[in-house]
Task: inverse folding
């Protein structure tokens, strides 16, 4: 097994064993490219989404939130260009009947059996279903392949109720579905996934500047999570890579074990989307600038990140093997559990004090109580799931109401008064990794 597969293999197994991520419908043998987040995974994913949401909405006066429905009027997908253009060219092997993306096979012979391949045919990646009891053409609806369109069709609603002025943005987190031909690499490419998208509406002519601005902001966001700088890079799309709606686009790429791949797309979508929705809906989605008395259709700068891909990035970047332990060096703010609380021994009143500390901390952070086994082993179990702090009640606690707080990454220990635990941890939990007490 190669080193890169090895890391992926180890991570997949850790995720399963410790309850981050399970294959979907596992008792039935699983279903391809669908995954379930377990007790620790859902905490990690929620923390990540919450951090994105806070950064994008709470910290920006001019960004509003939205949660649009997954099922939308089918005309949305005609207007957006997805019915016509959201396709991959496919070829079938005439002998073994396997199906491949035409751009991923060389020549006209099947990579599996050497059989002859058919001519490429366009295959639409949107999942279709029927709305209502009758399964007929007129009842077809799609599961959204991107969350963005829910924002565009609500542009006027949000503008009216929020009294924002351009430039302003709308942010949304939600599920998207794509019938991917070659899913894989764990949660990197799946058929059901989540996106965190922000659509920023700007005056035409200012779009290039805003594209640059958001590219830098988004890159800085990953760095604030402690993702290694040399594992991140910006890739500008070449003309043949550009999506049908984009004039210019950048990918924020991460160096995955299987190579550099897109983590987030930053796109200049021009007035393509709003103009098409004006055309298809017959509604006025233009903007009137009170100051300059100009009317125009705004340009859109989009930041589009995958939740699951960011989870995978954070896990891979954090995964560290040391001589004596495996550590997930997750940023404390996204760690599923913030502190493990341990009585050094199961006597002398230590478990009771430790339980009291649990109750004191629980309203503020997710904590985990563990009294079983050697203390070193209890620390290592928490290291492996990325818990930034270990709090130990020992004989000194009985004398002076202090506890040991151990930092996950440096393994340094300091003594903290029980009453000071909440503020001490609160401060430490918002700083990027490594988790250490060194100045
Ligand atoms: N609204 C623009 C848009 O959807 P995209 O580049 O197709 O652009 C944006 O997707 C992000 O969504 C990607 O950078 C990736 O993080 C995530 N994504 C897309 N397809 C995915 C899939 N099949 N599985 C997991 N994440 C996916």
Result:
């Amino acid at each position: 097994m190669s080193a890169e597969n090895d890391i992926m293999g180890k991570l997949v197994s850790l995720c399963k064993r410790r309850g981050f991520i399970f294959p979907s419908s596992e008792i039935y043998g699983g279903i391809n490219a669908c995954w379930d987040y377990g007790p620790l995974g859902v905490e990690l994913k929620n923390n990540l989404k919450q951090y994105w949401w806070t950064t994008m909405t709470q910290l920006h006066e001019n960004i509003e939130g939205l949660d649009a429905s997954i099922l939308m009027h089918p005309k949305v997908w005609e207007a957006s260009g997805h019915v016509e253009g959201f396709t991959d060219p496919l070829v079938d092997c005439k002998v073994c009947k396997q199906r491949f993306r035409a751009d991923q096979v060389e020549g006209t012979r099947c990579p599996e059996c050497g059989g002859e391949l058919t001519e490429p045919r366009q295959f639409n990646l949107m999942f279709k279903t029927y709305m209502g009891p009758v399964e007929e053409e007129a009842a077809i609806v799609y599961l959204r392949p991107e969350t963005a369109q829910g924002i565009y069709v609500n542009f006027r609603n949000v503008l009216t109720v929020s009294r924002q002025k351009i430039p302003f943005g709308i942010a949304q987190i939600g599920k998207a579905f794509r019938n991917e031909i070659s899913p894989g690499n764990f949660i990197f490419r799946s058929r059901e996934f989540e996106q965190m998208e922000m659509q920023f509406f700007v005056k035409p002519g200012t779009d290039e500047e805003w594209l640059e601005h958001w590219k830098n902001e988004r890159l800085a966001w990953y760095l604030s999570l402690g993702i290694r700088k040399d594992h991140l890079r910006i890739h500008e799309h070449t003309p043949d890579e550009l999506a049908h709606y984009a004039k210019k686009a950048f990918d924020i790429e991460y160096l995955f074990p299987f190579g550099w791949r897109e983590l987030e797309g930053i796109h200049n979508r021009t007035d393509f989307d709003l103009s098409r929705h004006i055309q298809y809906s017959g509604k006025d989605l233009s903007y009137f600038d009170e100051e300059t008395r100009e009317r125009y259709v705004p340009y859109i700068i989009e930041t589009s990140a995958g939740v699951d891909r960011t989870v995978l990035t954070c896990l891979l970047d954090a995964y560290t093997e040391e001589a004596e332990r495996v550590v997930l060096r997750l940023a404390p703010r996204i760690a599923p559990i913030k502190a493990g609380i341990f009585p050094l021994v199961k006597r002398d009143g230590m478990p009771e004090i430790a339980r009291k500390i649990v109750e004191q901390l629980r309203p503020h952070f997710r904590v985990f109580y563990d009294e079983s086994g050697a203390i070193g082993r209890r620390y290592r179990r928490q290291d492996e799931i990325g818990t930034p702090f270990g709090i130990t009640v020992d004989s000194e606690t009985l004398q002076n109401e202090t506890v040991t707080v151990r930092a996950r990454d440096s393994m340094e220990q300091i003594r903290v008064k029980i009453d000071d635990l909440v503020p001490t941890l609160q401060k430490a939990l918002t700083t990027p990794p490594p988790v250490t007490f060194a100045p």
User: Anything to note?
Assistant: The domain at 328-428 is CATH 3.40.50.800 (Rossmann fold). The chain has a mean pLDDT of 95.
